[in-house]
Structures are given as structure tokens and as C-alpha cells.
Amino acid sequence: MDKSNLLTSQSPAALAEEYIVKSIWNKHFVAGSDLPSEREMARIIGITRTTLREVLHRLARDGWLSIQHGKATKVNDIWETGGPNIISTLIRLDKASQPMIIANVVSLRTRMAEYYIPEAVRFDSKACEKLFADLGSLEDSAIAFAEFDYQLYRRFTFVAEKPIYGLILNSFKALYHQVATLFFSDAEARQVTRQFYHKLLSACANKDPQLAHQYMVENRQHTTKIWGEMLKNLPDRF
Questions:
Q1: Which residues contact 149 (CB under 8 A, 6 or more apart)?
Q2: What are phi and psi of 198, to 5 degrees?
Q3: 34: which DSSP letter?
Q4: Segments forming the whole domain that contains residue 56
Q5: What pLDDT, in 10s, does the model give residues 123-148?
Q6: Would you state the pLDDT for residue 230?
């Protein structure tokens, strides 16, 4: 792989990680094959073997590689071994895949919430109401909406006594904020979502989990249309 195609990296380790990951993604190093020796890889990338070894272990933890003592480092099929923490990397690697990955992330968050938020309302509607305490002072900005949205959905998981869903949200927190900030950069998206928050709050106040679910489905339908347009014209530096 030609290193001239790499983005500017800030350190030898970042350069090595980017080189290896892009090589795997672009099938220069194919799944199931062995990486070149550490000596050869270090020479190709232009870093020390110590730095390379640190990078290889980090990529192994993320699922890109399998390291076995005394054997060559093997390239994994990332769709089989990777976790949510690599999603941001995938978005950066392949612009063509961005709409699909973003749509999947949004769908995961939304479909999960359509289950656990009505459960939270059923379990403790008063606690659910308190989650909206800062709604009245919510600033009309993309960043403020992204943070409010993340915290709201995450806190609902604990009211519903579904903490595993909270851990799932934690696992892609940075990406959640990145995607949400993009979505809430649209004024219509903020308006529609603010209206949804107030409706969801009313469902909590009325202790009505079915109404909460209905409002969530309606919001999904509205926001899907907005996303459909946004995904056609993603910014170059998303």
C-alpha cells in the first residue's frame, strides 16, 4: 500500500495504525492471511519495532488482528471480530460506506429505545419526568441537542433497569455525538426533536407507556425522512 495515500498522522504509532488498518480495509492484507514479519513491517512503515508491537497489540484488542506467541500475526475478518469501538474508524476509511453505517447506528439506538423507554415509563414514570428537567433551558444548537439527546436516552436505560443498553450506548459515545451533531445541525431536526421531547414528557406525566411508544414511532418516521436527505449529501470531513 502506498503510504502517500495516508492521512497526515500525528505520531509514528498513529501512522502505523492507519497504514495497517487501511491496508486491511482495502484488502492489501486480506482476512485470513499473515502480516509480514515485524521487522519487514517496521521497515515499510518507517517506525521502530517497539512502536509497531504496541500498535499490533492495540489493533488485536480492537479485533483487526490475532496475535499468537511464536506464530505470524493473522489478519481477521473485522465483521466477525470487531466491536462498536471501530465504527468511527470504518466511517473514516470508506466514505462510500458512511450512509450505511450511520443508518445502522441510528437504527440501533432508535429500535433499542422503542423497547426500553416505554419500560421505563411503566416502571417509574416520576423518575422519567425528572430526566427532562433541563429541557426548558435546552440551547438551540447542534452540540447542545446532541449532548441532551445522548444523556436522555442513556439515563432512560437505568430507569428501565436495563443497564446493558446503557453500556451499549457508552461503547459508541463519541460516534453517537458525532452523528447526533450532524443531525441536529439541521434546524428542522431540532424543531421536530424538541416537539418529540415534550410529547414524550407528557407520556411520562400521564404514566402511559403505550403513548410513549406511539410518540417514539412517530418521531422515528419523521426523523427518517430528514436523515434520508442528509445522507445524500454528507460533509466531506464527517
A1: 180, 184, 193
A2: -65, -40
A3: B
A4: 12-82
A5: 999 999 999 999 999 999 999 999 99
A6: 82
